[in-house]
Design goal:
Layout (H helix, E strand, L loop, with lengths): L2 E2 L6 E5 L3 H17 L3 E6 L36 H8 L13 H18 L4 E6 L3 E6 L5 E5 L4 E4 L1 E4 L13 H4 L4 E2 L9 H5 L4 E4 L3 H10 L6 E5 L27 H19 L3 H6 L4 H7 L2 H19 L4 H12 L3 E5 L2 E7 L2 E6 L4 E4 L1 E4 L10 H9 L13 E2 L2 E2 L10 E3 L5 H4 L5 H16 L24 H16 L4 H11 L4 H14 L5 H14 L3 H15 L7 H10 L4 H7 L15 H8 L1 H4 L3 H13 L3 H14 L4 H13 L3 H13 L8 H14 L3 H12 L7 H17 L9 H6 L3 H5 L4 H14 L2 H12 L3 H18 L3 H11 L10 H17 L3 H14 L3 H8 L4
Helix pairs in contact: 1-3, 1-14, 6-11, 15-16, 16-17, 17-18, 17-19, 18-19, 19-20, 20-21, 22-24, 24-25, 24-26, 25-26, 26-27, 26-28, 27-28, 28-29, 28-30, 29-30, 30-33, 30-37, 33-34, 33-35, 34-35, 35-36, 36-37, 37-38, 38-39
């Protein structure tokens, strides 16, 4: 017996731990944790494992989801979550367009809930009661008492009835068939298919929807015919192998007349077939509007739609995975699967078989009849029966599901007084489309907010903690201290910033700025962060607890990650700094230096103007001074830049930005020996904790390359820049890969170029689908060094659909590098030469972008254009002295 009563703890019961219940529990855990709202969450379900339910308990690998992985995330604001989970759990090549198995999805639901429970420890207590709720009564204080199947009861402040669809009623079956032990009324129950699996006789499936498709595949075998019967005789349509592009919804959707609406939709479908060659984009464009359209119809129009178009809608809206459709097609071609239209009118047993008579006049001799008609309209669940009998719930429109208002049950008087809620299939009469994960996850998030709204503390403490620059933070003191540590490490370019920010959000999961900082580091700095997840957490938290500055910064990071505007979010970042000039993290992100790609524009002065405009707010702070030093050297004002860098280092010897600026001053002024020696000493001392230590080693190697010391370059590469052992990820691409290429271009690397080592340590997406133009530039360099022409073409294709800078700079860069790999040197030289004036748009420093100029020099020499190569070398030597360039010029033919 289960006896659960805790009057002083706010308790929410979730009845049912299938997909709907699991999604609700995840949202309750995470919303309560973000809001720091103590909660007692109780899951009621006799099943051994959460997340499975009926739909995702099957272990048959032929049973696939009917929605691509990109549409099956638990989180409506993080659509890639399931795809990333699959990649981390044994399917690294999976894409958002793939169709996973249903069993894997059940594992994903269970794991996501387990992770949410772990993150919620200390705020949310979660208990699992393996029993059912049979009835529900009110308590005097407005709560509910759930009476359990084991004889106990649970008192809760709110209850979510996540019971899934009603069981099939089998009302269609003649009495003799229902009485037969060869009739399977509940095919997904344990052991239900043991008989049909072990038998060799033919089988009749009543129903031709997705359940019938799955069972047809499970029971398919040589020598057997599986018959499938329904009134319409229609199978679900398949998803397209290659989906067509999206389509805007049609005009006329505001017309409440079913007849006119029907004509508008059919015209829209015809237009889709003409323009896209496919009807699917038209139907998909209606999905965001389906609930509104359903609400706009009169009860009579709804009934007419269900009777006339219901089957057609379901077969086109709820589709088969392409692989499933292919298996069905093969079975039909081999005549192992037959589809019939009609109904069962009679059935009798004869010689160990069932003789089934159909309304179309045909008689089938089968060993088994299996009910695949899908959810019924009548709830046989004891809890729902008790609620309907007592008037605490009433049937929904057209008798489908139950009546609700925003998910809260309506009673016989039309009131939503009891704290009883539901989601998913029970809301079908109200919403029509409500049984798929994309709809259920939105409802789960809304219910979590609704259930926890009365408990949320609206007031903010009068004094909030501040960051290291005096700006207030919407968090508590412990999380603020961790955030300040992370910010300090970012400004100094020290290791551990991501760990500090992760500690901050661990202490306060509702700290929007901490999540946004993590997303920014993962997106731009290659930190080991689940960027979409961190960004989604930042967005959710900003809605619930953040001031205007924090919300503005979350918006900036969102735009930079999504690249959803022409300048990659640069305009939003500029506006943010105009409003909040003292925001040091935003300023760090705005300047294209060692850590971030920064803001870019055609003349390259945008970041400089930002630093100059924010000087008063920072009042000579060493961080601001170090950024100004870096930008002054980019202007060619090397003496001033050196003075500024030394001033910043005097105030903070660990300032990585100041060291970086000074490294550029040495390089651009041709002081290669002095720069090498000074930077080598700093790396061995203060630089030991630098997060981008490899980049400082890259600077030293540049000096060694310019000094024409290939042996020193090789030693440093293997000791401080070797990918995998020393450097990984984007840093290996930007530093290790580019140095290899530059060494090869100047004949400073003897033997085989270990470019493959660089590629092996960089994620596939970073190489071929980089988020920024700066990363894309270095991906192109590394792929050219490896001679990987197909990957260069894939990178070009990605860039052609990315942001403006990638389209206008990276696409022609990839084409020029491809020409170089194919030894079309004249064409490569023309392409590279045309790019030099616009190369600043990709961000980064002049020293980093110089790799393109050096590639041009190689192409000119290889093309035999020695006069042009000589002029380019003279120009380089006028800028700065370099023994390597002297040697290369002397080696050119007269």
């Amino acid at each position: 017996m289960t006896e659960v009563r805790e009057p002083h703890t706010h308790t929410v019961a979730v009845v049912g731990a299938g997909a709907a219940g699991t999604l609700t529990a995840v949202q309750l855990c995470e919303t309560a944790t973000r809001r720091r709202t103590p909660l007692d969450l109780v899951l009621l379900d006799p099943s051994p494992e959460a997340g499975r339910g009926t739909a995702y308990a099957t272990r048959d690998p032929r049973h696939r989801l009917n929605v691509p992985a990109g549409g099956m995330s638990c989180y409506p604001d993080d659509p890639g979550h399931f795809t990333r989970w699959l990649c981390r759990h044994g399917e690294p090549a999976v894409t958002a367009a793939d169709f996973a198995t249903r069993y894997r999805y059940g594992a994903y639901l269970a794991d996501t809930l387990a992770q949410a429970i772990v993150r919620a420890q200390g705020t949310v207590s979660v208990r699992r009661l393996r029993t059912r709720a049979d009835s529900c009564t009110d308590t005097p204080d407005g709560r509910v008492d759930l009476h359990l199947a084991d004889g106990g009861h649970l008192t809760a402040d709110g209850a979510v009835l996540a019971t899934g669809p009603a069981a099939p009623s089998a009302d269609w079956a003649p009495p003799a068939l229902r009485a037969s032990d060869r009739f399977v009324a509940a095919p997904w129950s344990t052991g239900a298919l043991d008989g049909p699996r072990s038998d060799t006789a033919d089988i009749l499936l009543v129903g031709t929807g997705l359940t019938a498709v799955d069972l047809a595949l499970t029971l398919d075998r040589p020598g057997r015919t599986v018959h499938a019967l329904s009134r319409s005789g229609l199978l679900p349509q398949p998803h397209a192998l290659t989906p067509a592009g999206p389509m805007s919804p049609p005009e006329g959707l505001d017309d409440t007349s079913l007849g006119r609406l029907r004509r508008a939709v059919y015209r829209h479908i015809s237009r889709s077939v003409r323009t896209h060659g496919d009807w699917r984009p038209a139907l998909d464009s209606l999905r965001p509007h389906t609930t509104r359209l359903w609400h706009s119809l009169t009860p009579e129009d709804r009934a007419e739609f269900v009777a006339r178009e219901g089957a057609l809608w379901n077969t086109h809206r709820h589709r088969m995975a392409p692989a499933t459709a292919e298996s069905v097609s093969r079975a039909r071609t081999a005549r192992r699967l037959g589809i019939h239209s009609g109904t069962v009118t009679d059935a009798a047993e004869h010689d160990g078989l069932l003789v089934v008579t159909l309304s179309n006049g045909r008689t089938l001799h089968v060993g088994w009849v299996i009910d695949c008609t899908g959810p019924g309209r009548r709830y046989d669940d004891p809890l729902w029966r008790s609620l309907l009998a007592s008037g605490a719930a009433v049937p929904g429109p057209l008798g489908m599901g139950v009546a609700t208002r925003d998910g809260r049950l309506l009673d016989a008087e039309g009131r939503a007084g009891r704290p009883l809620f539901t989601l998913g299939a029970p809301r079908r009469g109200e919403l029509w489309e409500t049984t798929a994960i994309p709809e259920i996850r939105v409802q789960a998030a809304a219910l979590a907010r609704q259930l926890l709204a009365p408990l949320t503390r609206a007031s903010r403490p009068s004094r909030r903690p501040v960051d290291g620059h005096g700006l207030p933070l919407s968090t508590h003191a412990e999380a603020a201290a961790a955030y300040r540590s992370g910010l300090d490490r970012v400004l100094k370019v020290r290791a551990g910033a991501d760990d500090a920010f992760a500690r901050a959000v661990g202490l306060d999961p509702g700290f929007a700025l901490g999540h946004a900082a993590l997303a920014l580091l993962g997106h731009e700095c290659g930190a080991d962060v689940d960027v979409p997840r961190a960004l989604a957490e930042a967005q959710r938290s900003a809605l619930e607890r953040a001031d205007e500055r924090e919300r503005s910064f979350v918006d900036v990071v969102t735009r930079r990650v999504h690249g959803d505007c022409a300048d990659g979010g640069g305009g939003a970042l500029v506006r943010h700094l105009d409003a909040y000039p003292g925001d040091a993290l935003a300023l760090a992100a705005a300047v294209p230096t060692i850590a971030f790609s920064g803001v870019t524009d055609l003349d390259g002065d945008r970041a400089l103007r930002l630093v100059e405009r924010t000087s008063a707010a920072h009042d000579g702070h060493w961080f601001h001074t170090s950024l100004l030093a870096f930008l002054r050297q980019e202007q060619g004002r090397l003496h001033e830049a050196g003075e500024l860098a030394h001033r910043a280092l005097a105030a903070e010897p660990a300032s990585g930005h100041a060291v970086h600026a000074l490294a550029h001053v040495h390089y651009e002024s041709g002081a290669h020996q002095a720069g090498r020696d000074w930077l080598d000493g700093w790396v061995a001392g203060q630089g030991r904790g630098a997060v981008h230590r490899a980049h400082f080693s890259w600077h030293i190697a540049l000096h060694e390359l310019a000094l024409d010391d290939p042996a020193a370059v090789r030693r440093r590469w293997f000791a401080q820049l070797a990918p995998g052992r020393v450097v990984t990820g984007v840093r290996a691409l930007v530093d290790s890969g580019s140095l290899l290429w530059r060494a090869r271009l100047s004949d400073s690397w003897l033997g085989e170029l270990p470019a493959a080592d660089v590629l092996d340590t960089v994620a596939h997406d970073v190489l071929e689908r980089p988020a920024t133009a700066f990363t894309a530039l270095h991906a192109a360099v590394a792929l050219a060094a490896a001679g990987d022409l197909p990957a260069l073409h894939r990178l070009r294709d990605h860039a052609s659909g990315a942001d403006e800078v990638q389209r206008e700079v990276i696409v022609p860069l990839c084409e020029a590098f491809a020409a170089l790999v194919e030894e079309r040197f004249h064409e490569a030289a023309r392409g590279l030469d045309a790019l030099l004036p616009v190369l600043r748009r990709v961000g980064g420093s002049a020293a980093q972008r110089e790799v393109v100029e050096e590639t041009l020099l190689y192409a000119l020499v290889s093309a035999g254009r020695c006069d042009a190569a000589r002029r380019l070398l003279d120009s380089r030597l006028d800028r700065k002295e370099a023994p390597r360039d002297r040697r290369m010029r002397a080696g050119l033919p007269a």
